[in-house]
Design brief:
heterodimer; A: 202 residues; mainly alpha; Rna Polymerase Sigma Factor, Chain: A; Arc Repressor Mutant, subunit A; 2 domains; B: mainly alpha; 4 helices; 74% helix; binds zinc ion
Amino acid sequence: MTTAVPPAGKGTPADRFESEVLQYVDGLYGYAIHLTRNPDDASDLVQETYARAFKARSQYRLGTNARAWLFAILRNTFLNDRRAACRSPRTVSCDWLDELAGEDQDGFESPRSPDPQKSFLAGLMREDIEKALNRLPEEFRSAVVLCDVEEMSYAEISQILSIPIGTVRSRIHRGRAILRKLLVEWQSAMMEGSGGEVLAGG
Amino acid sequence: MRCSQEASRIQDYISGELGREDRMMLESHLSGCEECKTCAETMLFFRSRLRDLFRVTAPVELRNRIATLSAGGGKS
Ligand SMILES: [Zn+2]
């Protein structure tokens, strides 16, 4: 008999599954807030995600990307629930996005202006950025949040959103450009005293 | 304007998605071009701002709910 028997509870596949999967609660919760826009709904969504993950654990192979797997479950759960709640089809018109983002894939408006933005960005309130994020269609918002907040790779995001890497890339580029543009526009609208809601039409 | 083509590369750069060679090429461009350098810094700054503002910790109560799930569930 070999001596080195691992203590019970360590290293069994079931426990490895749990420890792999449980390290993403914070990230999933943060992403869920961006999707649901509400802490209670976010908690419910994360709980539901884990319920499904535990049920589907046989589909998960240890050592593969648990994070992408969980985030995909969370997003699909959210989209299915929402689709069930309101029967409106999930179509995204990209015209206004193209317009807002300016030149496709252009990361910034005009590099010529000597950094008008850094101090401005530093002063941005969470609420402003949140509001701007919420103006983005879900797929753009997800791509930006997963890349910039969760620091995932394009490949990982492509797995979660089930879209090609090239599309992920352009969603992120355009999403960021739109965010910045909205924030700058709100700022200048405020400075002109027009109350900031000039864009509310959408 | 040549630099406008760098914009999308800068985006991939701050995402950490440039290969070694592209990264070195871009970095050498940034070291000589104020505009692109400023652009990259601003974008990096915005990204870190997003991260700082939106990284959250899940409520304890949610963790407890999940712990209950994992203890009880799995074989249902
Ligand atoms: Zn340049």
